[in-house]
Amino acid sequence: MGDGDHYDFRGSTFHGPVIGRAEHDRGAGFTAMSALPAPPTAFTGREQHVRALLDVLDPDNTETRTDAVLISAVGGLGGVGKTALALHVAHAARTRFPGGTLFVDMRGYDDAPTAPEQAVESFLTALGIGRENLPSAPEELYALYRSALDSRGSVLIMLDNVSDPAQVVPLLPGSTRHRVLVTSRESLDSLTARSISLDSLSQDEAVALIERALRISDPDDSRASAEPDAVRQLVDLCGRLPLALQIAAAQLRRRKPRAVSTLVADLEAAIDRVRALRAPGRDQYDRDLVLRPVFDVTYERLDADQARLFRLLAQAPTSDFGQPTAVALSGVSPDDIMERLEDLAAVYLISSSPAGDRWVMHDLLRAYAATLSTSEPVLAHEATDARNSLLQDFLLRAASADQHLHGQLLAEVPDRFPDRDAALAWLDTEHISLVRAVEWAEMAQHSRFATALGVCIDRYLHVQRHFTDGTRVSETLLTAARREEDRILELFSLSALGNSRQQLRQYREAAIVHTNALRLA
């Protein structure tokens, strides 16, 4: 792990130089890790919370030792800036942790949250343990993880977007010198943690955020000071929520001559439209009318191509995606897609990873984009076509990658990768999305896609010892096989499922599955 490496475990994937290389680096891994995403820009306010967090995250402070530090949202509020606060503090505190930092997005509000065993596998790889040396049973993985942490100096572990204490407890280190920072919309009452609850920013903090966000791109931008009343109206219309404020500021930055008061008027009009469609005073997230009008105004100012891409990106299996996924969903050429992705990032609808090769859509924006895609029959049809195109692309790439893993290239399978390392790197990066794609295809009763894709990634999941994911895929294929009355696929699925359960040391369940396979054979 060189000093220039930057590890980011959003969705349990790797971004940066580690991609395609972690499988081969077998060093002890005692170099301090740097796994945090970039610190948030235009962060302001929350001084009291920052001080409290820095105090409790001090490894030398014996009075503040606790299992974890939880940043939660008042009333389950999304977009309140939990992750931004956590990252701001984590970057400020990182020099206190000579053992390094680890970060994972637990995707607690996605259709397929990150399982603790998926997170711990990524952590162990970052800690210098080769995947072929990882035990199969989850309890042994966690024991190895705690042992690996015990051999290091203090480590800061950040678990983002947690929805359930069960995602946290297995990842707690055994030593009190390490610190765990958790963000969640829930209070997670059963977790023994120091809790810090966030509500909306104060009006002064929200105004300061707008001022700072405008001056970051242009130090001479004086619109906030020139229109103080309009800025106060703007931040109140945004509910003083950082997500809404950042999107509003991005709108102002993109249209430099535009007066703040014109954006205020647009938001007021959008709120009137939303009120006409929904119960008075509430939006689709059961909050005050805040997020939807801000999203609407931003969406309406996209050109047709940008708006289409925004809607279609919500069809990706997970909230993070790479350029090839965006190309497959949209049909836009690789030469043009980056510019359009950057256009969406400029208005805060998506964000890029530190390495710039992955993109992330906030789950509230993803839900909004998905809703847009079902608002009209033609848009719903467009979304279905996009998903089918992505499934086809995944299938072609997975088939080619599987051939490289098998060491035998067949003429009838188009080769998408220059060598085995490149194929393995792609599978490592996309395997969470691939597993989710198999499940989505089966739910949509696209059995042909689900079956073919599941079979193609089966070898990879076993080679890389992703046995929990292997179980999910095998169970999905088994459902498809029985619905289609496909005996050969059913036998394959039972065999793969039994092997995965055996590797997970679920011996009783494995014996039942293998017995069913023998009866079928």
TrEMBL record:
GO molecular function, one term: ADP binding
Entry-linked Pfam families: NB-ARC (PF00931)
InterPro entries: NB-ARC (IPR002182), P-loop_NTPase (IPR027417)
Segments forming domain NB-ARC: 47-211
Name under which the protein is recorded: NB-ARC domain-containing protein
UniProt organism field: Streptomyces sp. NBC_00093
